[in-house]
Structures are given as C-alpha cells and as structure tokens.
Amino acid sequence: MKYTPEQEEELMTEVWSLNIKDNPLNFVRYIFPWNQEGTPLADFSGPREWQEKILREITTHVQRNQSIDTPEMFRYALASGRGIGKSALVAWLVLWMLSTRLGSTTVVTANTEQQLRSRTWAELGKWKTLSLNGHWFHKTATTLKPQQWFEELLIRDLQ
C-alpha cells in the first residue's frame, strides 16, 4: 500500500466526496500533481482551457441527470489535430469514473487497435501513474481493474 491506513482513508473520503465524485474537473485538479516540482506536471497549472470546458459540461450533465427520472447520455465529438490532449482527457475520464463509481465499467474504443494501444491506452497508463490513487488499479495491455487489496477492502467494508 502506498499510504498509511489513515492516509488511505483520507484519500478515499476526498475522492468520494460530492465535490469530487460528481465533478470531473475537481477530480482532475485534485488527483494529479499540477505545479509540483519533480513531476512531469511541474510546469502545468491544470488542464487546458478546452479540456476544462468539456469537464465542466460533464459536471453540468451529471448534476442535471440527478434530477430526472431517465438519465440522458452525454455525447460530445471533437475533431482536432494531433497532440492537443484528447487522449489525456479520455484517460482522466476513465480514472474519474473508475475512482468515483465503484464497480463501474468503462469501455474505451478507438479507430484502430494500434491507436488504442499506442496512444489511448499508453496515455491512460501515464495518468494512472501520476494520480494520487493510481495504486488502487492494476493495468494490463487491455484492462484497468481494481488491485486485489482494494477490491477486497471494498467488498469487506463497503459491501
């Protein structure tokens, strides 16, 4: 385990708080070491403006869905060039879902298997490693699952 039991409990309490659980932008701001020396994010204060805009739209969508009987699907299309952070955004959303919606399944697709493995999945691995709770998950070539200790803890304590 990366943290003491007390620190782990603090991390879980924060990640599962309504301020983060239902707000992917707050999750991204909290879970990654933005502006921290000695990290790859030392020179970055947070997501790019366009990424923040989408994360805010998802937050609004989540909040709106809580007040209706039949939840609506969130749909968003983005056409752009290479290297602007689309895969990073996908990685953040996968980590947000799996971290805050325990037991959920997130399916990630791409145009080709090569693109999925070399770009999207590689990016997910990078952001998992940078996240405060990356140790909760085990990544393989095609899956991201709870670590055995984390899954056992959830079953035992949260049922």
The total strand number stands at 2
User: So how many helices?
Assistant: 7
What is the N-to-C order of secondary-structure elements (H for helix, E for strand)? HHHHHHEEH
Rounded average pLDDT:
88
Strand content: under 5%
What structural class do you assign from the helix and strand content?
Answer: mainly alpha
Proportion in helices: 40-55%
The major pleated sheet works out as: 2 strands, antiparallel
Low-pLDDT stretches: none
Give, in spatial order, the strands making up the sheet with the most strands. Answer: 1-2
N-C termini distance = 21 Å
Shape: globular
Whole-number radius of gyration? 16 Å
Description:
This protein has 159 residues and is mainly alpha-helical. Helix content is 53%, strand content 4%. The chain contains 7 helices and 2 strands; from the N terminus they run ααααααββα. It has a two-stranded antiparallel ribbon. A hairpin with a 4-residue loop joins strand 1 and strand 2. Helix 5 packs across helix 6. The radius of gyration is 16 Å and the shape is globular. The model has no long low-confidence stretch (mean pLDDT 88).
